[in-house]
């Protein structure tokens, strides 16, 4: 197969949801339909259960699982599909945001009883920023939930995206029969009782045929025909272009647990989801079809074994062909590196590969060379954009708790920050180090990992802080004035950029009003 065909057949996407909406179950069912696994239950959930906030063994166990399920590749209808897993736990939201920089499209899972939930809103914001094409799967129709039209309005209003149903549920709750496939204009009913495998299906092409009554009864048949008519009247015709621009989300209904509606989603997905798109770099846009290889690190995973503190860096291939044992430029470090054992992920199996194409994700063995956002190229100075840090929500001073282990602490903190576990700021005034996270859990994880992987001990001290904002201005005079007046609240992030640490919403507002020539940004990329 030629280079261009390899790119055109790749579909790299992420499944995101609010915890418990059914992301893991859907992923598993997609792998089942794709033939990548044969029995459900093979893919373990990477979520950290709510009860496990202080159970570190559980966290470690889950980290192990999430390496295995970071990327799940499989072949379906001639396409090479790469599913990128995202942590469900909201304390790891930043990890999910970064993973979204490596996908070409996204499937959002929504619980039909709950509608759009807070975590989904945040994730959608990232998709909107990047104009990522989005499909929606409304799950758990086998339970009594909200009315489907109400759910569509809810998505449109909350996620601020136009919607178009491409499948439609036949009843819900205990009388849920399955879904009508609007995209392919046919009815597919699964008869099997076994939810762990894919059962035989009955196919009905003509919805007006009286056969419909035989399958689902006259009451549901009438409702289905009426509702389909209403959909045609209310919603515009589906256009792939609008979806690809990120302006319209096709919506599918179903029950991942019962295999209802999943194949409809998958078949449409392989048909319309985008192949790898150009990626923005500071210097220029990089087209996947360019001959020269380029890629960036979007995730780093540390080994859980303290005796082998090596890591896996996950690289998204952006252009050209990546080849094993070939020298590539590590742009930030300015040195050439080659990789003898790059791995690819097929379902839950890992294997060493000789080459990889745009859209693929490879894992490379790293002994501490990489940070998130690093670029590899064939020599060109490229810096990929779009891996922002977001203002953390929680802050604490971090102090050394064992004077003999100062070096270990510094190294541990440095490496954990490279992995993107949290953000570290250094107060310019007093030099104190501040850790910023999106959730409480990270503080516990950092403390635990520093001790177990680096032999270092840290303690935290609480700090009154609301937000970290990256500041930018052309007005040097005002900047100097700002620096003078706010000297106690200015810090440096790990890239040496200046950050204003606002201790309350009020002080932030005052600063914004008083220093109106200064831009205050809540993400590090602007
Ligand atoms: P997540 O990854 O988005 O967090 O969700 P996950 O797939 O783990 O699903 C969360 C819970 O919802 C699971 O139940 C799962 O079995 C259930 N679920 C998923 N899809 C459906 C569906 O279509 N219908 C119904 N009724 N339930 C569904 P659990 O009891 O929390 O976990 P488990 O012990 O069953 O694994």
What does this structure look like?
The chain is globular, with a radius of gyration of 25 Å. The chain is built from 14 helices and 31 strands. The longest helix has 17 residues, at 218-234. It has 3 domains: 13-70 and 87-173 and 232-272, Rossmann fold (3-Layer(aba) Sandwich); 279-377, Rossmann fold; 394-521, 2-Layer Sandwich (Alpha-Beta Plaits). The structure holds guanosine-5',3'-tetraphosphate. Guanosine-5',3'-tetraphosphate is lined by residues 17, 19-25, 45, 47, 88, 139-140, 142-143, 255-258.
Q: Based on helices, strands and strand pairing, what is the structural class?
A: alpha+beta
The total count of helices amounts to 14
Query: What is the highest CATH level, the class of the largest domain?
Result: Alpha Beta
What is the CATH homology-level superfamily of the largest domain? P-loop containing nucleotide triphosphate hydrolases
Estimated radius of gyration: 25 Å
CATH architecture descriptor text of the largest domain = 3-Layer(aba) Sandwich
What number is the mean pLDDT? 87
**Which band does the percent of strand residues land in?**
25-35%
Key attributes of the depicted protein:
Alpha-Beta Plaits; Rossmann fold; alpha+beta; binds guanosine-5',3'-tetraphosphate; 526 residues; seven-stranded mixed β-sheet
List the helices and strands and how they pair.
Layout lengths: L2 H6 L1 E8 L5 H11 L22 H13 L2 E6 L2 E6 L8 H8 L4 E7 L6 H13 L3 E6 L8 H12 L2 E4 L1 E4 L7 E4 L4 E5 L10 E4 L6 H6 L1 H17 L5 H5 L3 E6 L8 H11 L6 E2 L4 E2 L7 E9 L8 E9 L2 E2 L4 E3 L4 E3 L5 E4 L2 E4 L2 E2 L4 E6 L8 E3 L16 E7 L5 H13 L4 E5 L5 E5 L2 H15 L3 E5 L4 E6 L3 H10 L4 E3 L5 E5 L2 H10 L4 E3 L5
Parallel strand pairs: 1-3, 1-4, 4-5, 5-11, 6-11
Antiparallel strand pairs: 2-3, 7-8, 8-9, 9-10, 12-13, 14-15, 14-23, 15-22, 16-21, 17-18, 17-23, 19-20, 24-26, 24-27, 25-26, 25-29, 28-30, 28-31, 29-30
Helix pairs in contact: 4-5, 11-12
Bound molecules: guanosine-5',3'-tetraphosphate.
């Amino acid at each position: 197969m030629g280079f261009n065909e390899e790119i055109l057949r790749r579909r790299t996407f992420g499944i995101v949801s609010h915890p418990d909406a059914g992301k893991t179950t859907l992923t598993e069912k997609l792998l089942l339909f794709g033939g990548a696994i044969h029995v459900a239950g093979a893919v373990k959930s990477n979520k950290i259960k709510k009860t496990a906030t202080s159970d570190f063994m559980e966290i470690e166990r889950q980290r192990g699982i999430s390496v295995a399920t970071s990327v799940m590749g499989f072949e379906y209808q001639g396409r090479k599909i790469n599913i990128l897993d995202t942590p469900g736990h909201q304390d790891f939201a930043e990890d999910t945001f970064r993973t979204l920089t490596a996908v070409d499209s996204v499937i959002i899972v929504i619980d039909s009883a709950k509608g759009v939930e807070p975590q989904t809103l945040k994730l959608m914001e990232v998709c909107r920023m990047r104009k990522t094409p989005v499909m929606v799967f409304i799950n758990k129709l086998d339970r009594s939930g909200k009315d489907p039209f109400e759910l569509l309005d809810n998505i449109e209003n909350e996620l601020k995206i136009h919607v178009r149903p491409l499948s439609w549920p036949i009843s819900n709750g205990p009388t849920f029969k399955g879904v009508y496939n609007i995209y392919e204009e046919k009815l597919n009913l699964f008869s099997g009782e076994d939810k762990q495998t894919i059962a035989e299906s009955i196919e009905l092409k003509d919805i007006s045929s009286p056969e419909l009554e035989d399958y689902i009864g006259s009451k549901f048949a009438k409702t289905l025909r009426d509702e389909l008519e209403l959909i045609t009247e209310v919603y515009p015709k589906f256009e792939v272009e609008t979806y690809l621009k990120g302006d319209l989300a096709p919506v599918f209904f179903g029950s991942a647990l019962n295999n209802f509606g999943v194949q409809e989603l998958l078949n449409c997905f392989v048909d319309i989801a985008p192949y790898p798109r150009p990626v923005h770099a500071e210097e220029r846009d990089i087209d996947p079809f360019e001959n020269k290889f380029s890629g960036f690190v979007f995730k780093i995973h540390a080994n859980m074994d303290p005796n082998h503190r090596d890591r896996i860096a996950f690289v998204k291939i952006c252009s050209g062909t990546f080849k094993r044992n070939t020298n590539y430029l590590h742009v930030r470090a300015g040195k050439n590196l080659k990789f003898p054992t790059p791995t690819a992920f097929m379902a839950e199996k890992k294997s060493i590969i000789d080459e990889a194409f745009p859209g693929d994700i490879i894992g490379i063995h790293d002994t501490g060379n990489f940070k998130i956002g690093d670029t590899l190229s064939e020599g060109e100075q490229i810096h990929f954009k779009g891996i922002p840090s977001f203002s953390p929500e929680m802050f604490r001073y971090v102090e050394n708790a064992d004077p003999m282990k100062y070096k270990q602490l510094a190294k541990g903190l440095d490496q954990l920050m490279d992995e993107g576990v949290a953000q570290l700021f250094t107060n310019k005034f007093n030099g104190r180090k501040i850790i910023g996270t999106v959730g409480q859990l990270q503080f516990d994880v950092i403390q635990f990992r520093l001790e177990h992987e680096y032999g270092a001990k840290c303690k935290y001290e609480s700090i009154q802080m609301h937000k970290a904002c990256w500041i930018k201005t052309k007005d040097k005079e005002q900047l100097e004035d700002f620096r003078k007046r706010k000297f106690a609240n200015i810090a440096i992030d790990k890239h040496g950029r200046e950050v204003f640490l606002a201790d309350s919403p009020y002080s932030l507002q005052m600063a914004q009003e008083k220093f109106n020539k200064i831009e205050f940004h809540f993400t590090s990329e602007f």
